[in-house]
Amino acid sequence: MWFQRLYRDESGVALIEFALLATLLLMLVFGTIDFGRALFTANNLTAAAREGARYGARLPDPGAALVAIRDTAASKMSPFGNAAINATTQVVVSCLPSCSTGQLQSIQVQINYPFSWLTPLPALMGRTLTPTLRARATFRWEGA
Length: 144
Description:
The chain is 49% helix and 17% strand. By secondary structure, the protein is of the alpha+beta class. The chain has one domain (12-140). The protein has a 3-stranded antiparallel sheet with strand order 1-2-3. It is rod-shaped and about 95 Å long.
């Protein structure tokens, strides 16, 4: 008799339903925030690479100012929740086809930025999202 009464008792059902749905809802909310952070960071990386390449394309001799181009690109990046960009290791400036041959045609700036996810959603989805975001911009050298 007590088993039938316990079987029909619905006093804890709402709490269990809330726990199941709240877990799913929180994963959805924090996943949206995390993907928004990644999109914001990727957009800022693209803008920083573009500004660095634009700065280098206007210089009279970009081959002599590669460090200044790299620092300009790094200074334009505004991280959101991650570490600031390290210009010496994460920004690569190159002249195409070459700075030394005198046949310079364009300036390319590439930024490799390590992004740290806040939520474990990529692992829960069974996917490994790359922890490195990349942006590249190429501008034609205006001095040619």
